[in-house]
Amino acid sequence: MSVTPTALRFGVLLRVFLRSLFLQASWNPKGMQNLGLAYAVYPALEALYPPGPAREEAVRRHLVFFNTHPYVAAAIVGGVLNHEQRIARGEETPDKVVAFKAALMGPLAALGDGFFWLSLKPATGAVSAALVPLLGVWAVPLFLVLYNLVHVLLRVRLYWLGLTLGDRLVEAVARANLPARGARLRAVAATSAGGVAAWLAVSFGANAGGLYAPLLAAGCLALGVASYALVSRRVPNYVVLYVAAGLACVAGAFL
Amino acid sequence: MSVVWTQVALAGLWGGLVALERKAFLQAMMSRPLVAATIMGALLDDVASGLAIGMLLELFFLGTANLGAALPENDTLAATGTSAAAATLSAATGAGSTPAIWSLAVLLFIGLGRVGRRGDRLLEGYTARLARVALASAEAGNLARAMRQNLWGMWPHFGVYGALTALCAFLGFCIEPLLQVLPPMVVRGLAWAWPAMASVAAAIAAQGSHARRAPLYAGLGAAVVTASVVCVLLLEDP
After folding, report:
1. Phi, psi (deg, nearest 5) at residue B212
2. Is 0.90 topped by the overall pTM?
3. What ipTM was reported for this prediction?
4. Closest chain A residue to B47, measured at CA
5. Residue B112 contacts by C-beta under 8 Å, 6 or more apart in sequence?
């Protein structure tokens, strides 16, 4: 009779984390990240359950609908391992891990979308784009370092929190106060975008030179302000871009 | 017209790799326009085009996000396609990279963002089929096969978007004669369109930043930068 280990080795934990990076490889409209989640936790299920009905049942409970933010999913993946170890030891029933996923995926998706997609990404993108005139090509590695320092550290930390705390990870995530940090990052994004718009306008005027220089710089700035107003009134971004390009083309051709 | 096929192949390879990184694997932002376009420029020996186009498209697509089941425009395809076309166009002219070339490339290829969104939607049909195979395999007890389905979902993205990017690089060589026949005043107009489009993209970025008082912050940033640049210019040329 084979003895099933109920504590996962470091190698298995590492494999699960690395496989969780493929969470959205087969994102599909019906189950969304279900294949990715089952793929990620499979090495742990192999270690915890012997081949046969128990393992098949364990895989099937992770092939149901699952969707959350791909980074904060690390916390749920860790929490799933925490629960599966207890299920394998007979300390809790399988419905606990299903309930754990169902309860957390929505709130964590909202948290991850708000912080990573709508705050950190625009802020680091806008700051790096604004630094292109000063740093040139070095703005690119700066962008990757700024973003991934936060992304990778949080992803590893969330996985560890889920693994060690299980259901109690919610309190730990709440303490990180991500919504307030996100609001500050969004302000940084807006400030940087305004700064780069002004730099483009003023340097354009300066480069064009001559009597028209102040007029061109002011015109370019006015174009930026008008674009902001138009986009705020739901005029499509593409329309605004093409109209601006057309106006500038005409000005460039005849001035 | 002389096409450098190694450049077309390199563009396709990089376009395919970042298409994977965009959603299927890691998402460490290698697929953001600023990064993807600059590296494309470096691969095709025209960093200046890649960086300029990457900056503009980074700002233009700053507010897009993949929230839930909603599909945003494919900013990665727009960036790789546009920068590949600009780099091969400037290689074909032999006169180096210019703002007129960047403007022409952006005006012709920025719509790839929408093409990519359509492609993403079509590829979902394929992943839905993989999900059905995985569920059937798990029911039949073939767990290894069920797990393998997850990785099969990535490769169509690599193939489709790699091929589209390679096509853009090829088109860059093809449109070089068009640039040669443009009257000088139109080329000058295209050069002026560059800062105008970048300025508009920055304004769109401020609007897409999702900040509560975005106009205030953007105005503050613009005022500080304007004052600083004007001071520097006055000090340099009193």
Report:
1. -65, -45
2. yes
3. 0.94
4. A137
5. B74, B77, B78, B81, B82, B164, B168
